Amino acid sequence: MNNLVHLHTFLFISILLITSFDNSFINTKSTNKNLSTSRMKNTLNKIESNQNTNSNTNPNSNPNNPTASSSDNFSNKSPTTTNSSTKPQNTNISPIPTPIDYFNAKLDTCNKQTCIPLYGFCSSSTNCTCLHGYANAPNVNNKNSNKKACDYNQKKQVTAFLLEFFLNSGYGHFYIGKWWLGLVKLIIVFIIPTTLCFLMCCLDFFKNTLFYVLSIGFIVLSSVWWLVDIILFGLNNYKDSNGVPLETW
What we know:
With 249 residues, the protein is mainly α. It folds into three domains: 65 residues; 56 residues, no CATH class; 78 residues. It has six helices and five strands; from the N terminus they run ααβββββαααα. The strands form two sheets. A three-stranded antiparallel beta sheet has the order 1-3-2, with no helix packed on it. A hairpin with a 2-residue loop joins strand 2 and strand 3. Helix 3 packs antiparallel against helix 6 and helix 5 packs antiparallel against helix 6.
């Protein structure tokens, strides 16, 4: 009998515990559900309020505004039309200058008065071809009204080459009219090395390593410059001071 009472008591307590646990679980679940629902509502309310704010600040987004759509269409189409209408037309493009033909002169009429036989001959009715040693240089002496075709006397390539080959002091550049280049070469290649050699031979003060190195440097520089000038004059790559090619050998 006592065992039966104990059993009933145990069962009653168990039922109470289970019931209380289920109620607490159900309450917790409902509370969480209510919280999630309230959060979703708050989020939806924020989104709606943002949309309303944007619609109020941007009148073009209002679907009931017919002018907004038309203005949008106009704004979408306007850049192409304005770019095409306002695109600057570069009509002042200067033509590429044609190189000067130093050995043929274009004339209205070629005859012995316009193309002197001493300087050239008429290769066609409007063209005067220069003889060897003469060139057509319209950019030289433009103020001379008596200027004829092919009356420019060319500097000789062989003379400039021999001057630089044997003297190597800028005399070839002096001959073709490039005075500044000739003067610079004369100072660097001849005057400075000669002065240094004289000072080192005559004065003990200059007999040191620094001046020996300077002398050797100027000698090497003059040798390299001499070689470069010989090659360029030999290939006839130099022109005179007026830009006219030298007479080939």
